[in-house]
Fold these 2 entries.
Entry 1:
Amino acid sequence: MKQPVALPIEKIRGITYPPPPSITEEATGVAADVLRLNLNESHLPPSPNALAAAAQALTQTNRYPDHGCSTLTAVISKRTGIPASRISFGNGSGEILVALAMLSINEGDEAVMPTPTFPTCGKGVQIAGGKVVSVPVLPDGSNDVITMLAAVTPDTRLFYLCNPNNPTGAILTASDLELAARQVPDTVLLVVDEAYFEFAQAEGGPDVLKILANRAGPWVVTRSFSKAYCMAGMRVGYALASDEGIHKALWQLRPNFNVNRVAIAAATAAMNDDRYLQACLTHTISERKRLETALTHLGFSALPSFANFLTVVPPISADIISSSLAVENILVQAMPWPGGNGALRITIGSQPNTDRLIRAINKFLKH
């Protein structure tokens, strides 16, 4: 008689990537006195046009959504120049990153990734039974492409870049991206996570799609509506693939109707509202620079950031500062990198949010 299988299976028990922070909400939503500067959300609401489209779509939620996300696909295709036959969608770009690992990794295969970075693709590698080969980021927080390329072996099947990198904020140069496009073997899927694409673009970041267009091997760029479009709660991400084969594989892995009707309508309207997007980008970048100046005066060292957050190395333990702020209902993300005191990743909020944070840090440091 067969022995019962121990659940979860060993491969799943071995996943080392933790889930995101759990923050309990009341029925009315986010508590007004809690300052959430640890999740890289926008404090701004979505575009008014997106909210109106979402409200209209709510009246038809008795119907399943368009699984092809046809209206949204058309807008993205026009913006990016990528044909509809190479665009896919996920319940956030994280779902796509897991799928990309699953379509490229067999048991025992390797994936080369920076560390620290966004963990979800690595989680997908472990789900698929692969091995994550981690390469430390450079001192400025950017992916070390040269060392990552040196870590590629005949067993490598996925090469992951995060640009801008989360949780550090730095971007890759065009020359680094060109090097990866040329030297990542054609047998390896090159993935570029551009969740913060709009911020990098606004500040002169390289054109990743233009660079990857010259690559012979397979590639995918992932993007999100969670950050610049202020729609983290809607869960909409999309993938731009090098070829229809990858697109087909992503669609085979997609759960049925994984992007809901309200989210599709809101994302389409949001992408068509350039004026609101630019206003959000301008505000966030300006407030990030103000926060950087204030923290520098308090003895922090700021890393270059092209995102909706700022990562700083504090003059004392990041864990101690984070815990002290949490007592005052101010949540920031502490991390051990780059050693020593560690670092704090701080989401950019409103001007009053920044003022409250600076007052709390200043008060703590004086004690």
Entry 2:
Amino acid sequence: MRTRIFLAGLAAAAATLLSVGTGSSQAETKKPYTIYLSNNFVGNDWRQQMLRSADIAAKKPPLAGRVDLKVEVVETTVQAQINSLNSIIRNKPDAILIDAGSGEALNPTIKKACDAGIVVVAFDQIVSAPCAYTLESDWSRAPRVEAEWLVKKLGGKGKILVDRGLAGAPISAQLQGGFEEVIKKHPGIEVVGYFNGDYALGPEQAGVASLLAAHPQVDAIFVQGYGAGAIKALQDAGRPIVPVTGSPFNLTTSTCAKTEGAQCILAPNPAYLSAEAMKLAVEILDGKKPAEKRILLRNAFLTTDPVPSELYPDAKMQKIEVGKNAFPDMAPGLFLPVSPDWVEITPAEAAGTK
């Protein structure tokens, strides 16, 4: 009898050990999460780098082997993105990352995805669907920090030009409004002209050039787009190089670093937002949900002259330096910085030259 009890105990122990071993093996060999990236536009350098960043991050630790990334690029119409999302939902992925063509029109489709148990993370151009997680740069902070920086560079006095961005674009109105909110508190600063830079070098340079011809005194330029176009307009007009704002394209950081007397501050909106969105989706699927569904990224401003912000004391400033965040021999449309701190994306990889 004792022998039978002893053998039964051994069998139970062996079964327990086998169960533990099998569970561990299943965890180690768990299939990667299927994640779709839905993008509605590839017509500029930022969007192309964004797609490359997601692909690179999916192949490197810590996400390597954890994500089966599938990219869907559609026409620039909202309906085309809705049709694509419906097709994606039928494939029952674990998560969908969306750079949205509309903040509102995609919402019913996104709700359908959420109701099917699919994690949805909208990034860059986000959506308002309550069930979606959103990830974007802090566009409320950026123009205010830039305005504060310009005020300090001007000593509170001067005549400035203001870029209205792209006509009708909500983000353009938000950036202009945030900038002017700060400027209006300094009566010594006068806005003498407006232009629409359209987030493109040609319109930016032409808009600034036209205003320079009409105004003999311009002490600073608020640019929503590149910033490099404004500097070129100043050079072509034989005018002093004045402080400018802009975006950290490689052309702009290189121009700011190499142009004598250039004073620049560039607001961050990294193309690796796609990689951040993918990492967030994996964490959510792993059961590590963030406290809030809306997540704001606050990356460092790139500048020739780091000046602490009093409005946002935690705002980071990184000095523009050749070889660090300016690469004159690389593609002008490369958006900087190229990599988050949790994965290494090299400048060559981000530019698509490696």
